[in-house]
């Protein structure tokens, strides 16, 4: 990549993306935590942070918005 090329900052962090990819596979918070070797509280924090970035009030709305923005494939 050339120095003057602009590359937009991704909306989601790598971990937030991993959490939502598992969430759309119908995994529970507990299952996501176990699979990613993090606590359930951390999973909830990642979901909450993403919802805040998107300005939505629920997980379902977050998933819909992420798909609409092309950030998530289902």
Rg, nearest Å: 13 Å
The CATH homologous superfamily corresponds to Winged helix-like DNA-binding domain superfamily/Winged helix DNA-binding domain
Number of strands: 0
The class by helix and strand makeup works out as mainly alpha
State the CATH class. Mainly Alpha
The stretches of 5 or more residues where confidence is low (pLDDT under 50) are none
> On the 0-100 scale, what is the average pLDDT?
93
Main sheet characteristics: none
Strand content: under 5%
- Number of helix segments? 4
Per CATH, which architecture? Orthogonal Bundle
Give the overall silhouette: globular
Order of helices and strands: HHHH
In whole angstroms, the N-to-C terminal distance is 29 Å
InterPro entries: Sig_transdc_resp-reg_C-effctor, Tscrpt_reg_LuxR_C, WH-like_DNA-bd_sf
Protein name: LuxR family transcriptional regulator of spore coat protein
Organism: Evansella vedderi
Domain HTH luxR-type: 5-70
What does it look like?
Residues 5-70 form the HTH luxR-type domain. This is LuxR family transcriptional regulator of spore coat protein. This protein has 74 residues and is mainly alpha-helical. 58% of the residues lie in helices and 0% in strands. It contains four helices and no strands. It has one domain (14-68): Orthogonal Bundle (Arc Repressor Mutant, subunit A). It has helices at residues 14-23, 29-36, 40-54, 59-68.
């Amino acid at each position: 990549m050339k120095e003057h090329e602009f590359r937009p900052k991704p909306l989601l962090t790598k971990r937030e993306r991993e959490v939502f990819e598992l969430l759309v596979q119908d995994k529970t918070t507990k299952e996501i935590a176990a699979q990613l070797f993090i606590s359930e509280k951390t999973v909830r924090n990642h979901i909450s942070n993403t919802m805040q970035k998107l300005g939505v009030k629920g997980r379902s709305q977050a998933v819909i918005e992420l798909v609409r923005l092309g950030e998530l494939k289902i």
